[in-house]
Each structure stands twice: as C-alpha cells, then as structure tokens.
Amino acid sequence: MTEAVALSLSNGPDSRKAAVWRKHTGLIVGATLLGVILLSSLFAGFISPHDPLQHDLRNTLQPPRWAHPFGTDNFGRDIFSRVLHAAKLDLMIGFLCVLFPWMLGTALGAIAGYFGGAVDTVIMRVVDTFSAFPFLVMVIGIIAILGPGLMSMYIALTLAGWSMYARLVRAEVLVVKKAEYVLAARALGYLHGRIMFRHILPNVITPTIIFAMTDIVLVILSTTSLSFLGLGVQPPMAEWGIMISEGKGFILTAWWMVTLPGLAIVLVGLALSLLGDGIAKLLRERA
Amino acid sequence: MPDPLLDVRHLSKHYGSATGLLKRLSGAKSAPLIAVDDVSFTIAQGEIFSLVGESGSGKTTLGRSLLRLIEPTTGEIRFDGTDLCTLDATAMRAMRRQVQMIFQDPYSSLNPRLTVRQTIGEVLRVHAIRPVAQIDARITELLALVGLPAEALDRTPRNFSGGQLQRLGIARALAMEPLFIVADEPVSAVDVSMQAQIMNLLLDLRSRLGLTLLFIAHDLSVVRYLSDRVGVMYMGRIVESGTRNQMFEVARHPYTQALLRAAPRPDPARKGTEAAVRGEPPSPLSPPPGCHFHTRCPFATAICRSTPPPPETVAPGHVVRCHHHAQTHVMP
Amino acid sequence: MMALLDIRHLTTQIPTPRGTLTVVDDVSFTVDAGECFGLVGESGSGKSMTIKSILGLIPPPGRVTGGAVLHDGQDLTLLSPRAMNAIRGRGIATIVQDASSALNPVLRIGKQIAESMLEHGIVRTRAEARARVIDLMAKVGIPAPETRIDDYPHQFSGGMCQRVVIAAALSCNPELILADEPTTALDVTIQDQILKLLLALQHDLGLGLVLVTHDLGVVAQTCQRVAVMYAGQIVEMVGTADLFRQPRHPYTMGLLNCVPRLDGPADKRLTPIPGAPPDLAHPPSGCRFHPRCPLAADACRSGKPTLTEVSPGHLSRCIRQDALTADLWETAVA
Known about the structure:
The structure holds three protein chains of three kinds.
Chain A: H1 2-9, H2 13-23, H3 25-42, H4 44-47, H5 79-115, H6 117-132, H7 135-146, H8 150-177, H9 180-187, H10 192-228, H11 240-247, H12 256-286
Helix pairs in contact in A: 3-5, 3-12, 5-6, 5-8, 5-10, 5-12, 6-8, 7-8, 8-10, 9-10, 10-11, 10-12, 11-12
Chain B: E1 6-15, H1 21-26, E2 33-43, E3 48-52, H2 59-66, E4 74-79, E5 82-83, H3 89-95, E6 99-102, H4 116-126, H5 135-145, H6 162-175, E7 180-184, H7 192-209, E8 212-217, H8 220-226, E9 229-234, E10 237-243, H9 244-249, H10 254-262, H11 302-306, E11 312-315, E12 318-320, H12 325-328
Parallel strand pairs in B: 3-8, 3-9, 6-7, 7-8
Antiparallel strand pairs in B: 1-2, 1-4, 4-5, 9-10, 10-12, 11-12
Helix pairs in contact in B: 4-6, 5-6
Chain C: E1 5-16, E2 19-31, E3 36-40, H1 47-55, E4 63-71, E5 74-75, H2 81-87, E6 92-95, H3 99-102, H4 109-119, H5 126-139, H6 145-148, H7 158-170, E7 176-180, H8 188-205, E8 208-213, H9 216-222, E9 225-230, E10 233-239, H10 240-245, H11 250-258, H12 298-302, E11 308-311, E12 314-316, H13 326-333
Parallel strand pairs in C: 3-8, 3-9, 6-7, 7-8
Antiparallel strand pairs in C: 1-2, 1-4, 4-5, 9-10, 10-12, 11-12
Helix pairs in contact in C: 4-5, 4-7, 5-7, 7-8
C-alpha cells in the first residue's frame, strides 16, 4: 500500500516502465511471441533452409541436427521449413475464419437488436438453430456436404462460428440502444444507417474484439484438427494438422515429426491467448 | 388569443396489450399498462410549460411521445397546425428541425466516442443547416451561446463535468435551430452548484431565441423558478394545470398540495413531524378505479372510488381533476 | 460528556494513475447521542468517503492515512477487520442510498432483517428472531408485517425497501446510524415519509444519526448541526439554524443563493456558482474554493485557510470569515 503511494508519486521513467511491464506482462510477452511467429512465417521463404515440399529420399526420418533443426519426415522433407510455411497458412486461416463470422454475426446481431420485433425473432431463431449443433459436428457436416478442401473449411467455420457473435452483438446493441445519445440521434432525424454505424456499432464492438481474440485460438485448433482428420487442407501442403497426422504412424520411431509441429500449435495458442487477455484488459481499462 | 404552438389532444400511450404470439393465439388479453392516459394541454409560443410528477407518472413517456421517439397509441399532437402523428417518416424527419430534445443524463446523452466538433458538426451537415465551410464557425458560435470555450471543440465527453455536458446537449439541440424543445429533467443529474447555471441558461435562451419549452421535472422548486405554466401528473393523467401562481399559491388538487408540503425546503423553522401524504403510489399495472389518487387522499369519498373526475376549470387557465375541488382549497 | 462519535483529523487518500487523491482531508467533528448531524456537499466533496472511512470500508488501494475515529473508547481506525465487523451493525449501523440493491433479491425480507441479529447473537432462536422482526417491521411502518415478512424484495416498492433497510439497521440496537443519502433515490412524497420516520425513530430511541445529503432542504428539516464539505474538506460547521441565517463561508452562501426555493419571490434570479468543483488530482492552490469564489483575494490563492471559530460553535474555513456578510456577498456577485 505505502509502496503503491510512493510509486504513483515518484514518476521517474524507470519506475513507470517497470509499472507498465508489471501490469501488461501478458500483453507484451504475447505480442512479442506472436510478432516473431508472424515475421518468421511471412519471411518463411527466406528463413527456411529447404523447400517445404522437396522430397529427399536419402535423408528420411533424420532426427534434429544442424542441417535439419527439426529433423526430416518420412519423405525426407525438412520439418523446420514445413512448420514455418504452415504457420503462414494456419495463421491466415485462423484470421479469416474469425473475420468472416465476426462480420456476418455482427451485422445480423446488430440488425436484430436495433430493429427488434419480427426481424429480431427471425434472426434469433436462425441463431438458435445454428447454435443447437455442437461446433465440430456442424463443421464436419458442412464439409461432408461440400467436400474437403480449403474453401469448404472457410465456409464451414464461418457458418458454424457466426452465431456467437450475433448473440453477443445483439445483447450489447439492446443496451446501447437505450442510451440517451441514441435517442438523441433519433430525435435529430438521423437515418438508421447513420445511427447504426456511427452511434451504436462503435460502442458495442469492443467485447466482440475481445471474444474474437480468444476465438482465433479455437479456430486454429479446429483447423489443425480438421486437417488432421483429412477434412481441411489437403496434403502435400504444409499444415500443422497434416504434419501431425502424417507423423502419427512414426510416433515411436521419429518423435519429432509429431512433437515439433504440435509445439508450434501450443506456442501460437499461448501467444494469442496472452495477447487476447492483454488487449481485453487494456480495452476494459480504457472503457 | 393566438393559436398555441403546441396543442396536444387526448394523447395516450398504452404498453403491452397482447402483442406476443402465444398470447394472441390463446386469445388471452392482459390489461395494458397505461403510461399516458388521455392527456391534453397547450403551450403558447415563447412559453415554458412544466410537467411535474413522481417516477412512473408518465411524464417522460409523454415528453418522448411528443417527438415520436415513442409512438403514441392514440391522440393528436398539433405542432404549428400540423398533426405530428399523421406524418410519414420523411416528413417527421424534416419536422425534427423544429422540435428538439434535451436529455436527463448528461453522461449518457453524448456519444462517448465523438468529439464536440463531430457531434455538433454532424447535426449541421446531415441537415445541411450550414454550408460546409461555415460549420466550424457555427459550432464555435453555438458553444459560446451555451457558455463553453472554443477549446472544447476537439474534446470527447469524458473530459467534461456534468454541467458542461448538459450545456453540450443543449448546444446540439440548438444546432437544429428549433422552435420548440422538450427538456427532460435537464438539471436533476447535475450537481447542485451547477443547476442554477443550466436553469439560467435555459431562461436566457428562451428570451434571446424566442424558444418554447416543455420542461419535465420532479423538483417543484426548479419548476417554480422556470415555468410560466405548470401541469401536475399522477399515474398518467394531468390532475391539475394552471399558471405558476395558481399552482404554487392556490393549488386545488390534494396531490399538488401534498407535493408542495412534502418538498424539503431550506428553512429550519419549518420542521414538521407528520408526513405530507400517507401511502405509496399504487402499481401502474392495476391503477385504482375512479380517481387514481383516492387511495392516498384525505378527502376521498365514494364518488372518488368509482368515477374518474372530469377536468374542471376553476379559474381562467386553472384546470383541476378532483370531485372535491370546491372544498380542497381550505387545506392548510 | 464523551461524544458518541468523535472524529479527529480524519484523512483518507486514494492513489490513482493520475496522482494521489486526498478524498477526505483533515475532517473533524463529533456526534452526540440523540443528535442528528448533517454532512452536506456535492458529488466528490468527500461526504460519502467520510462515512466509508468511519466504517473502514474504503476500497483498496485507498485507505485512511491519518486521524482517529473514536467510538465507545476505542479508535476504530486501529481495529482489526474482525473487531470492526463486530462494531458494524452492532454499535454503528448504516443505511445506504439504493435500498433495493442493498437487499438480496433471493432472500425473504424477514431473513435479511434477522440476519445480523443472529450473527451478533442478539437473538437465539428462530421464533424469537421472527417475533422481533415483525416488531421491527411494524416500527418502521410496514403494513401487515406478519404476512410481508415472507415476501421477497421485488414485491416491495422503493420506499418500502428503504423501510426494510432501516429495520435491519435498527435490529441490533445500534447507538449510531450513518445514513448515506437515504432518500435521494426516492420520490418527493416518499422521501418526506422516510425522513419523518428516521427522525421519529432517532428521537424515540435516542440515537445518534449522521445524515449525508446534497440537499440543503433535507438538512434544514432534519439536522441540529451540519458540516458543509467541499473538495474533501469541511468548510463550515455550525448549528443548522445559523447555517441558514448567517452563513460564514462563501461556498455555503453560494449554495444557499443558487438553489431555487418554494418560498420567497418567484422571479428573483438565481446567482449560480461559476465553474465546477475541482479535480482532486490537481486541487487549486491556497483555498480550494478560490477559483469559484466571488470574494477571492490574492491571499486566498496562496494561503491555506484553516477551520477556525467565528463565534462559539460556528467554524468556517475562510480567511475573510469575520468580514463576510450578506451585503458583502450581494455586492460581490452583482
């Protein structure tokens, strides 16, 4: 307590830095980690020592060493290069498969909450229908109809994921709609579009961003799970789920084939969770 | 006497009369909540008319229905000869240039993400009230009108005190250059030392701009300071209305008298021990039959329990809804 | 005679990122048994924080940093949280502003009134508790207490909830009640009923009552003595009649002149206090009221006025207190 008082009184740059660090450790660590992962995946072509798809049948199942830091797989492909290239694909899928449901869910949730009445009833019954299925069951079902592949996965994850955003946004809109500044906007004769996009949405978007930050981890896990099951990204593309799936037959003889892509998933998950929590904390403080 | 600027006739607002699908299918009819019950009044050009009442009296619902922020169930709102209730969305939007509102809670009546320039500039741009080149100058002018410095321009609401926010709310309404403003409890959420600033501002604006105001309040002393005429609401009805003097000097309705006696006064000599009125307001879902006030009224008789009292004019401009208005004025 | 509550130089600070706020600044006052003492001020003046400091309920990281709260021979600021719990409710009871949120919505009314009696061992059996609760409910004017004892809070109106809270406060026979804006959330006619009830109970039971309010009208009709607070400090303390008859602090004078009244001439224009209360993170130099004071002189900007006696029992924190008259005020604001 006395330290806290002393701290706030002495505004030296060092103590302030220390206070920021202590308060936002998770955010800083998460952002740094994700930054490193993002950069290395963006420049995978330069960093990776080998072509991720290049077979080298003389060097199959090599354990990690200098020439192949993560070892090689049963086709002699360099796992380190494959993990780096897969990062780009997995992060992009993760990002897009959160962005699409976020846009769809926010739009429909906002319309339902703002207009109410029959519009609300119809949209929310559709939401109920979509949320009645377990997430993975619905995703697998949709992919089964559309056929496996990257595009099917985008569609399936969007259709399975939007309803949560719709619910969240609708609930927030119902609260903000009663705020006097929205009433004032109506009294000032503004059109619905202006009221929605300028006066309501900016004030309800924060919680959806916080939710999206945690959702992105789940989506990446789902992506790798689907690819593991052979429903998502198709071999020979480098993708963590595929790599684990391919390595599972060698788990006793070549542990690195499964473990190191798995570690990559854990690292990305950790980075995104830390970042998500950190951003959530920051936004809550500002609000 | 010239035509009044605002002429409200038999306005009512009912809530929730069997709107649910299940209810409609089953044919069950629940009694509606009558928030505003057959209210009529007029406001002349340049006048400040106050509606006073306790929570649940319907005064806020009434104020909002005048701007059709809440759709009235029945009745007419004649503004400058036009019945607002008959206007379509486009015509009503145009009418909003002339009819504006000031809100109660200064902290929630401004979009927290927009600066003053954005909030007021938006009004001027959307309705093309000023050419784009003159917008900044006009905002500064409006700020000066409500007593805020030009430095306020690029700040967001969190940087202002409650009193300053209320001034901004007033400036936003004035940007439309309205003839008529509904002010819904504009000082009740403002700190005591700043209430007078806002009230004096409203009085000044009335005399400088010739504004007409409907002032909604629960505080009688505030109403006495600001109003030309006053209406007292109880459970959706206006039970008494008249000029300020009639209401504060010779109030006839037992409820008005009770309000006057219950209001705390900064006068230590006036310490009473008896409460001004007994009982609590009944539930608005099941209002008592007859005169709504009879459950708490010291004068109530059989007729009060059965028949709603009609409005009766006891003096020019002084209307009372009480069966016993002839006797009640002897009340201490 | 020893006062029921004797507060000496109470100071409470809250550290924030913007700096340390002194929300209660060197506040001293006493409350006697059978006395109703008013603490009046605007939001942020420190009146509620004073009550929280007395009860040891300042939310961390804020804390009482100085002074003493003497009650019943002990300094409450030195007590352990456990000992303080025994005092709260038992010796000192509180009534809060928002009664309906002070009650637990899923517990029956009777249970909530009985709770602290059972906790503090005032009653032993449930039957005894029930009888006493019915008695208390009747005392605070709740009709048909025998049936209403088993109702839930949502079945009570705001005014009735406040009566329940008062009954719970009285349940352990406290000597002192701290009421923080007990009627602010209520309608005028109900506020009137609750104030009259509080006064009657206080008189009948000989309680000490500290009433926190922003409403000078409420003060005038209930309190014997009153302290006016501004920006964390008491600026004037005096018997209620004298506060209204001859205020000796410019802030009090300003307040009395800026509230509209039901008596007196209707058309007399109010004189607002200019500006807004200060930001406690950056309080003004010298007298905290000087930026808004029509009588401020150079000395007010530098020297910090202390709370001194103008006449017996009348304290004011103004360097010009002796010269302050209604006439001087009128000419200054004109």
